[in-house]
Amino acid sequence: MEIKEFLDQDQKKDLLRLLTAGSVDDGKSTLIGRLLFDSKKLYEDQLSALERDSIREGHAGEEIDYALLLDGLKAEREQGITIDVAYRYFSTAKRKFIIADTPGHEQYTRNMVTGASTANLAIILIDARKGVITQTKRHTFLVSLLGIKHVALAVNKMDLMEYSEEVYNKICDDYKEFITPLGIPDVRFFPMSALKGENVVDLSDKMPWYHGKSILEYLETIHITSDRNFEDFRFPVQYVVRPGNDYRAFAGKISSGIVKQGQEMMVLPSGLTSRIKEIVTYDGSPSQAFPPQSVSLTLENEIDVSRGDMLVHPKNLPSISRHFEAMLVWMDEKPMDLNTQFLIKHTTNNTKARIDSINHMVNINTLENFDARTFQLNEIGNVTLTTAKPLFFDAYKKNRQTGAFILIDPRTHHTVAVGMIIDKISARQTHRITEVELQKVAQGELLIHPAQKEKRFNQKAHTLWITGLHGSGKNELAYTLYRELFQQGATPILLDGKSVRAGLSRELDYSPSDRAEHLRRVAHMCRLLNDQGMLVICSFVSPDNAVREQIAQIIGPDKFHLIYLEATINFCKSNDQYEIYEKADRGEIQHIPGIDMQYDIPQNTQLTLNALEKSHQAETVFQYLEKNNIYPAS
Amino acid sequence: MNIPSYHINNLRELEAESIHIIREVAAEFENPVMLYSIGKDSSVMVRLAEKAFFPGKVPFPLMHIDSKWKFREMTAFRDKYAKEMGWNLIVHYNKKAFEEGVGPYTHGSKVHTDVMKTQALLEGLNKYKFDAAFGGARRDEEKSRAKERIYSFRDKFHQWDPKNQRPELWDIYNAKVQKGESIRVFPISNWTELDIWQYIRLENIPIVPLYYAKMRPVVNVDGNFILVDDDRMPKEMAAKAEMRMIRFRTLGCYPLTGAIESEADTIEKIVEEMMTVTKSERTTRVIDFDQEASMEQKKREGYF
């Protein structure tokens, strides 16, 4: 072949990124070494360097140790195992390949997840002598979690099982049974001996019963272009190019979908629309562009667009929300601290995120769910997150680009976790306050004994928590109690929604998860004030049973007194000072308990008061305080 | 289904990936710089940067760390293109060491490389307080680079700790650094040597003529052909010079970079030679033989 012809053909090849996973002794490195070697891309001096290394450190006796080709770092080589992801490159007449070589060792889920994140295809190795083992299952689960659509199960070391069809079939059957629920669309099986080169590049004559392709032929021919999402146009703006004048081009990489000149576009989050004026590239202005191209787009109208915004088709929008559910993989040595406000990077957006709840964890060996209060290194679980500003996303299953994110620790700046979005959280879904480890809610310094404070203030440092619908008269009752207590000589403190939301919780809205965060802050404030000897009166709708229980845990159940103002919704509407119900009826506001959100009627209250009997309410509370020696304390 | 028209070939896919990386860095760092070595990989990287911000200008400077022992043709090439293309080019060198006369012939390759390359680089990065520096390293060049991240984290002393690198998934890069820390960014990590040549051919990217074979005066030093580039070569050495048809596969300091005998005077011939002659490219750089895993050692010290 003439060199020009070779080059012209070579540049037309496409690129396949694959991942190899297997246990330490499955022969994974041998397979890769052979793919590289047999595709004649191993340079001579890399081979001679290898022979030198093998004598000193090799583990495979006299033969060339292909594994040493792949181990990069000296420290790792001394341990005899690869402990990170190594990328290798090779090319055949039909295609170019990037192999992410990841170790199968128990503790390195982190690396495998990393390698899988960019791969189109995974080769999972099985030792024919051992069959489907725990690690096989683990690797397969991770591959499905990261959304790889093609899996090749390579049943290796067939030479040690006398190339038995029976052995091979048994392994394939076991694997199929396990893999079905994972929903990986394309799974193929290969009987193989990497060491002897059987069915790696050429078909083996040792296994005439096998009628499929060799593994390399499969890699060369599998169709991957259609794996890309060409349906949903998503263009996260990376950078605004301003060469001068008023010209502005919005630079980015197309995450998914097709964009055409003249097409109508919507900018998120502003919702403003315009049309594509030009698709700009250094090499001219194509009439259309598609993933994964990096282009710049200009719009016909002057609209304010900046990094982090997303261009989409107005008739095909992603989810726009601050709340979503995701699978999270913990990547850091330090366990998760649920109180951290993480930094989140999603497409080209950076903002803050908190974990609202850990819904369940997955045991990657058995695929069973279990409960946990935190994440350790390499653990995987389902969480609910809230971000400080809305993100534009799709489910990871549908869109690998707009469904993925990383969490960064705000202090160490480590990438501590990676996540795959499952879905947005329905607004009605109940949220809980982030699980707190109770020992972490530490007591303040004990400078003055509580008994002394009680004596000085003549009151027990407890919290009276009034719950009820909007308009049930909570605030009126709270104000009356506050005034009366003060006049009688007590030292009360009043907290209500309006005052706390004005400052301390000003960035939070009325969604269930933000309500929970808001009340978490109030609960901790109550605890601090109680510690200082103060008697706290709280007036909050606090519609959620689970959240109220957690508030009691934070404050301390013995100091928490729940008072329920019972009222019908009609009464509340007639007593609606802020026109909240009118606005809700007109659809102007959302998340109103009793309207479009559940209000859990409290079961175990200390007091239940009737909203209609306004004149008796304060009196009943005072009787309760006296009876329980809360005020007066003596 | 009109999927075939949305097919992307390997070079365009790599190009899109690199442009994405370059734009991310420009958007997220306060003060990035592109390290320009004048080599073919640098030339490709610069073209990718020009593409990333077209029709705007590249929003960060290029910096060349001049060891003062580069081939003369490299320096001439650098100055010509910087001027023609309107690059904002910073040339930095270790002034103190240069005035003390540090060089490979007098101080040996290890000291020279450490002082005039590694130290000079760190000095340059500190002087301008760059928080991100692009480099043209590729993962297929050398074993320890196969595991390198695209965003490679460096501490306050510019040191690389293989055990303390951040997980890197999808194309989401963590750009958070504390004051004084930095990131080395390798936007062409996934390109192979063949990809580079293909791209230079396809895009008609100018490269230093030393890559092409020509009759040149060289001295055979332990099997490496060293070019007689200026009169700083010791006289007894230069006396052994002979004319040979040679070219360079990599470019660096002329006393430390061996040429190969070659007839390849076009890109096509270079690729043909590359595909048939089996010597991986870094073997012609003399310094790599100093010690095993030497590249890894240099990286820990702050060199790429």
Task: Describe this entry's structure for a reader.
The complex is a heterodimer of chains A (634) and B (304). Chain A has 17 helices and 27 strands. With 634 residues, chain A is α/β, with parallel strands linked by helices. Chain A has 4 domains: 223 residues, P-loop containing nucleotide triphosphate hydrolases (Rossmann fold), CATH 3.40.50; 79 residues, Elongation Factor Tu (Ef-tu), domain 3, CATH 2.40.30; 106 residues, Elongation Factor Tu (Ef-tu), domain 3 (Beta Barrel), CATH 2.40.30.10; 179 residues, P-loop containing nucleotide triphosphate hydrolases (Rossmann fold, 3-Layer(aba) Sandwich). In chain A, the strands form 5 sheets. A 7-stranded antiparallel β-sheet of chain A has the order 7-15-11-12-14-9-8, with no helix packed on it. In chain A, helix 13 packs parallel to helix 14. About 3% of the residues of chain A have low confidence. In chain B, the strands form 2 sheets. In chain B, strands 3-2-1-4-6-5 form a 6-stranded mixed β-sheet. A 4-stranded antiparallel β-sheet of chain B has the order 8-7-9-10, with no helix packed on it. Chain B is globular and about 55 Å long. About 2% of the residues of chain B have low confidence. Chains A and B meet through helix 1, helix 3, strand 2, helix 6 and strand 8 of A and helix 1, helix 2, helix 6 and helix 8 of B.
Write a brief structural summary:
The complex is a heterodimer of chains A (634) and B (304). With 634 residues, chain A is an alpha/beta fold. Helix content of chain A is 27%, strand content 27%.
What topology emerges from the helices and strands here?
The complex is a heterodimer of chains A (634) and B (304).
Chain A: H1 3-10, E1 14-21, H2 28-38, H3 44-57, H4 66-70, H5 74-79, E2 86-91, E3 95-101, H6 109-117, E4 121-127, H7 134-145, E5 150-156, H8 165-179, E6 186-191, H9 215-221, E7 234-236, E8 239-244, E9 247-253, E10 259-260, E11 264-268, E12 273-280, E13 288-289, E14 294-299, E15 310-312, E16 319-330, E17 342-346, E18 349-362, E19 369-370, E20 380-393, E21 404-408, E22 415-424, H10 450-457, E23 463-467, H11 474-487, E24 492-496, H12 497-502, H13 512-531, E25 535-539, H14 545-555, E26 560-566, H15 569-574, H16 580-585, E27 607-610, H17 614-627
Parallel strand pairs in A: 1-3, 1-4, 4-5, 5-6, 23-25, 23-26, 24-25, 26-27
Antiparallel strand pairs in A: 2-3, 7-15, 8-9, 9-14, 10-13, 11-12, 11-15, 12-14, 16-20, 16-22, 17-18, 17-21, 18-19, 18-20, 21-22
Chain B: H1 10-28, E1 32-35, H2 40-52, E2 62-65, H3 72-85, E3 89-92, H4 95-99, H5 104-128, E4 132-134, E5 151-154, E6 182-185, H6 193-203, E7 214-221, E8 224-227, H7 235-238, E9 242-247, E10 260-261, H8 267-276, H9 294-301
Parallel strand pairs in B: 1-2, 1-4, 2-3, 4-6
Antiparallel strand pairs in B: 5-6, 7-8, 7-9, 9-10
Helix pairs in contact in B: 1-2, 2-6, 6-8
